[in-house]
Amino acid sequence: MQERIRKLHHNRIFALVFWLVVVFAAIVTLPNVNTIIQYDGQPQLANTSQPVKASQVRNHWGRNLDGTYTVNAVFNNPAGKLTNKQLAAINKTTSSLQKKSTYYGIQKITTITNTPTSRPQLLSKDQSTEIVQLAVSHNQGPVRDIAKQLKNEIATVGLETYVTSPEIVSDAANEHIASFTLIVILMTLLIALVAMGILFASIIAPIITFLAILISYISTLSLATNLAYHWNFAYSEYTPIFLLLGISLFTLLTSFWFFRDLRNLVDEGTDSQAATTQVIHNLGYRILISTLSLTLAFGSLMLFKFSSIRALGILGVGFAITGLASVTLIPVFAGMLGNSLFWPKKTRPQLADHKLWRQLARFGLWQPWIAVIVVLYFAGVGLFGGTQSHLNYNNAQDIPNNQAVQGARVLSAHFGQGKATPVTLYLQTKQRLDNQDQLYQLDNLTKKLRAQPGVAAVTSVTQPGGQPVTQYYVSRQLNGVTTSLSGAMGQLQSIRNAIKADQNGLKQKDLKAEVKRLDKLSTKTDKLVSQSSRLQSALSSVQSNTSTSSSSSKAARRYIRQLNRINTDLNTASTTLTNLAAAVGATSSDVSTVQSNLSTYQESIKAVNSSLGQTRKQVQKLNTSINKIYTYLGGLQNSEAAKSLYLTPTQLASGDFQQSLVNFTDAKVKTTYLTITLKQEPNAKTTTKTLQSLKQVATSQLRGTSLKDATLTFSGQPVVTSTLQEQFQHDLPRVLLLVFGITLLLLVIFSRSLLQTSYWFLTFLASAAASYQLTRLIMQWLTGNSQFNWQVPLLAFVPLTVLAVVELTQLALSYRLNEAPLLDWLLPGIHEVGQTMRHSLFIVIAGVLGLLAAESQVLTAVTLITVLTAIIFNIMLPLMASSFGKLSVVIPAQKPYQFHWPTRKSAAKRPSRRSWRRHHTDESTDHPKDDQK
């Protein structure tokens, strides 16, 4: 039994079983990678960041809007202005959507019909595009599924329709990355397989390498996804790709070292198991220090709070697993197969002597200062070009033909660039916001923010359409007051004129004349009454006389008949006169009464006339005062003070304003929000400065007001972009310093030389900086865009670090294990290392070519940076190593006077360059190597 166990151990079967168990457990427990990318792929902002605080405010908003996000349903007529028929079709579509709101999780629909005050924000100025805003619950389902369903639901004949929002665009970016992740993985593995086949002219060796890469990758990916799924560990949308990139490159390089040494030993006749053990012994230290360097360098990134950088920390574990697999898994198959590992070509190919590094090293030893100038030039180009100023933080740049991105572009074209990505300012206070004092301060804040550079429009509870509501302002109200005052002044002038006319009609002289005429009339009436009495007596006397003489002659009788008729007429006249006398008497009495009344009225008229005179003077004074008030109010109306908000109780209770309160405040009316539309879409140059200006303005505007204690929280895609930019720019220099510092420190420890290792590492940094700028120029020529996505430096950081560690570790070990002086080691040592560097260069270039399988500018840029860095570094490293190595020996050995410009006499006495070089070379051989370091 012990013998069997010993054989199993000798054949490394236990290691194979261990890796089979590990990979089986990794596959079984591996969560859905696409789901992890969808939900955890976006950068995770700190809980203290503004966007996270804003989401917490929104989650407790009330009005059935808790946990919702805004989606824009865009209706566009590419032919021009929306027709009445098309507007009716949009209303019909919206009504249908309202009926299915429960199914789609729509909590609120805002249109130009139900919210006319927001019409300027929902209908473009050219009237070709209309927006219907939907408040959709996060609990309804995945964003991409809701977007697809809504896109189908809002389809309207004759119109182009889109469903877009910053959340949908970000999810589309994740979906796009997930779509090509599998392709990149397969192509990278395939190219790795082909590369190893080319190097060893074998089929079996590439398969073993492929298995080692696959097992290490699946184990690390499963660990990373499970940490993200169960413990909310940082995860990036590019995590599967950079894990594969780092693990495949490191596995290819270590496998190449292993198989190369193994073939040398096997060809010499060594037993396969013994050869395997010997290779492990020879390469163990090199693989150990490379693995340790990469593990510590990337593992240290877990100390950062920024999730996209912290996600890179899992690579430290990945490199540890890869290093362990290189010395345990690959030897299992190497010991089993032996020389069969290199089937079908069993004879080792003859390797030509690679002299490029030797020639470059010779040039560096011949003209060291020229080499120094070259490296300083490349370093200057990289530093002068910078990195952060050429980065953008827009996820939509790399998404091809997505309807959400197209919808955002339509909004930018018809409403302004910042329409698709507005900024939301939440204002929380302990006071209710439905009174004049608070609303006045909110309106002032709205106007102040709109006046800032880079701001296109601001909507708020007092300005729901992005423009002031005229009837809410003092100027409009003063206009009505001044109009009323103008009418009152006209009426007062009319009253004044009427009083004047009445006063003129009540003159005392005319009244006295009328009284005199009435007195004359009364006297004449008295005489008439007296005469009427005498006439009646005479008539009575005539009647008596007529009766006495009735018996006279016939002539007399005829006369009597005539007299009788006359008597009858006189009797009638007498009766009439009697009545007239009675009437005249009554008239005389009435005239007396009238005369008395007129006298009394005359006295009253005097009092009235005096009163009217005083009233006229008061009306004139009142008219003058009102005229002054009118002039004052007219000036006030044209002043800045009249532009202030003032809502009357009637306006506060109006339907339009109550609708604004519902739209812009929470259920408690103690939190409101302002929507700020910027003039430009989020970018690295202006967005952060604009947001900082808005924060300062908002804080200073509320200082000293009733809202001075209000809490301000900014959110929106520009705020997220700015937060990412600030965190990335803050952490990137620290990442570079930490990782490269750890790498340099370990190289110094392994090589036991601070100066030479620093020169080599400086060469690597200059190569990387130069390749970065060259890639930027190439991408500008290819795509017309000179800005990299902010993920490019992080992704390129992985293969570049592997390249630096692998090549510099080999150079450092060669330098340490050589006992010759530095100048004696430079040429042969660099030449020896250069014999395998061409293979490393080939492996690094082949390892990143799989990234080109994805139609992604990000991965294309990473590929170009890696390839150019590998080429430039392999050209500059032998040049710089020899140049700096010689100068580090020659310069300290020179005497001070030899740095002065020689005179003719001294020049004649100076030795020739060849004899001087020979002299110092002989002196340098007398110094031990440790002193030269």
From TrEMBL:
SUPFAM superfamilies the UniProt entry points to: Multidrug efflux transporter AcrB transmembrane domain
Keywords: Cell membrane, Membrane, Transmembrane, Transmembrane helix
Leader sequence residues: none
Transmembrane segments: 12-30, 177-200, 207-229, 241-259, 287-306, 312-342, 363-385, 732-750, 757-774, 794-815, 836-853, 859-877
InterPro entries to which the protein is assigned, alphabetical: MMPL_dom, Mycobact_MmpL
Compartments in which it is found: Cell membrane
GO cellular component, one term: plasma membrane
Domain Membrane transport protein MMPL: 70-368
Keyword Cell membrane among record annotations: yes
Record's compositionally biased regions (Basic residues): 902-919
Location of region: Disordered: 902-933
Composition-biased stretches (Basic and acidic residues): 920-933
Record keyword Cytoplasm present: no
Bilayer topology: Multi-pass membrane protein
Family of the protein in this entry: Belongs to the resistance-nodulation-cell division (RND) (TC 2.A.6) family. MmpL subfamily.
Descriptive protein name: RND superfamily drug exporter
Organism: Levilactobacillus acidifarinae DSM 19394 = JCM 15949
